[in-house]
Write a structure and sequence with these properties.
Elements: E1 3-6, E2 9-12, E3 18-23, E4 26-27, H1 43-55, E5 62-67, H2 77-87, E6 90-96, H3 105-111, H4 117-131, E7 142-146, H5 154-170, E8 174-177, H6 184-193, E9 201-203, H7 212-219, E10 224-227, H8 238-250, E11 257-259, E12 266-267, H9 276-281, H10 289-300, H11 305-321
Bound molecules: zinc ion.
Zinc ion binds next to loops.
Length: 322
Amino acid sequence: MAKVNTVLGPISVDQMGITLMHEHMVLAYPGWDLDPLCQHLERGELATICAEALGEVKKYGVKTVVDASPWDLWRNIELDKMVAEKTGLNIICATGLYYEAEGMPAYFKFRSQVMDITVELYESFMQGLTVGIGKTGVKAGVIKVATSHGCITPYEEKVLKAAAKAQKETGVPITTHTQQGTMGPEQAALLIGEGVKPEKIVIGHMCGNASLEYQMSVIDKGVNVGFDRWGIEFLFPDNLRKATVIGLLGLGFADRIVLSQDCNACILGRQLIMPDFIQALIADWSYTHIFKDIIPQLKKAGITDEQIGQMMVENPKRIFGG
Ligand SMILES: [Zn+2]
């Protein structure tokens, strides 16, 4: 039986059960810890905050959570391990990089002046996938890549090509970040053009676009799509996400959609106080929003338990297991 690496070791894909395919423990942009006014919480405190928030999903039968944090959004394996131990959830961590404008390209862009960084990136991804991340011995179970709004920059293209090469050698899936759902077809075409099997690709944040024509331009390539930002209504309204997913399910694509919330338990740095109108637009955003609010509404619209199970259990198992 196919295995997937979690932060506490490999498990059979049969043990994955209900799976959230794109969440985070904490959110932290590169440079947060250089702010003289940033708050420094001990890892143990952070683990408690994350475990309390994420642990809520167990009430809804969730067994597995993918932490889609790339290196440069402060992916933290020791924290993931502590949260997995505290909650009993399977946590799958990623190797990979965020998009150019909000990631950490300075290091590799400097190197790219004298080196072929596609090779270097590939070697780094392979290290995390086959040997282990840092000194933790934990192997990443998924590769994360990302592109900009409306374009794939030359740096991002190198990251995607390196990810494709590592994917082909290891068989682990690739999960992507799109800026508000843009560049989905281009990401899929680039990765498939590099030899990645479409069924091993999840094009993320596709729920940021309500055009069925656009959705089909991605699904027609054979890849999976992530409806993985439920509750972030300052980016896109949940009602339009719902209408889109109901449309795709009506067309028979339950086997190509995964659900998640792109949620985090804590944002690192200086205390962030959001304006009231933004707070109102993320009032429902949580690790349990899908279960509390979205699934009941989808069921009212005629979506079946079988379709929900396909999206939340069978698709993750197939994507990781092949
Ligand atoms: Zn994310």
